[in-house]
Amino acid sequence: MARRALIVVFALLSGCLTAVGMHKKASEDLTKSAKLFNDYVRWSNADKASEFVDKDTRAKFVDWRIDLDKALEITDVRVGATDFGKESQDATVIVTWTFFRKNEGTEQTKVGTEHWYLKDTRWFVKFEPVELPTKLANAQ
Asked: Rounded to an integer, what is the distance from CA 49 to the centroid of its chain?
């Protein structure tokens, strides 16, 4: 009886550890994906950045990024805190952009929140131009 109880406890712990390990890997992948995506955005590589955007909005994203290049120069981007619940497929990422408007030349900083979702084993960012630096082009 005690042996059976130990086997059950071991099986439950193994399942929990596997779930914890999977969540940790997904969380690490989120951070890597967010950094890579934002680096691509910073360096005007819309095609590469678009790989992190859902296929349905990918073309709009590329157009947005091309328009953004006309108005802004992003000089730095920092990916900060992530929030990814253990039972969720959605996450938020805090991002800080440093940029200047090409018609002004005054450097500014904006902190925003990106919304990401896990699809299969890959992270995608929700294309929300209001939350991304296009909002900055109209900021006062």
From this structure: 11
